[in-house]
């Protein structure tokens, strides 16, 4: 179990979306480079952009929540230190 304020990265769904988006971008680029596959390659590139965008937004939310939890943890830590000094 992770402790409050632990900011180490961990694998999660947003990063999976980013990895899939990168993979689809490579695949779509290779298919679009072929003469016969330009239309399907373009569709795959659009799909890659959507999937990657979802992953980037999701990762931003995860990092933001982790930062907010870290701030709360520091606030509680300093509150307990102040109580120890006054006692």
Helices and strands in order:
Elements lengths: L12 H21 L4 H49 L1
Q: What can you see in these coordinates?
A:
This protein is an all-alpha fold and 87 residues long. It has one domain. It is 80% helix and 0% strand. It has helices at 13-33, 38-86. Helix 1 packs antiparallel against helix 2. The chain starts with 12 loop residues before the first helix and ends with a helix. 8% of the residues are buried. It comes from Nocardioides soli. This is Putative membrane protein YhiD involved in acid resistance. The chain crosses the membrane at residues 16-34, 40-68. Keywords: Membrane, Transmembrane, Transmembrane helix.
What would the keywords be for this entry?
transmembrane helix, transmembrane, membrane, 2 helices, Putative membrane protein YhiD involved in acid resistance, mainly alpha
Q: Tally the helices.
A: 2
Shape field: rod-shaped
How would you spell out the order of helices and strands? HH
The description of the largest β-sheet is:
none
Count of individual beta strands: 0
Q: Which regions have little confidence, pLDDT < 50, spanning 5+ residues?
A: none
Q: Into which percent range does the helicity of residues fall? A: over 70%
Number of domains: 1
pLDDT averaged residue by residue:
76
Radius of gyration: 21 Å
Strand fraction band? under 5%
Decide which structural class fits the backbone.
mainly alpha
State the end-to-end CA separation. 32 Å
């Amino acid at each position: 179990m992770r402790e409050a304020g632990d900011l180490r990265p961990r694998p999660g769904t947003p990063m999976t979306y980013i990895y899939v988006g990168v993979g689809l971008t490579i695949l779509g680029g290779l298919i679009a480079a072929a003469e016969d596959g330009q239309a399907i390659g373009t569709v795959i590139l659009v799909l890659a952009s959507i999937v990657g965008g979802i992953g980037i937004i999701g990762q931003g939310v995860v990092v933001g929540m982790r930062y907010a939890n870290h701030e709360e943890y520091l606030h509680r830590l300093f509150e307990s230190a102040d109580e120890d000094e006054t006692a």
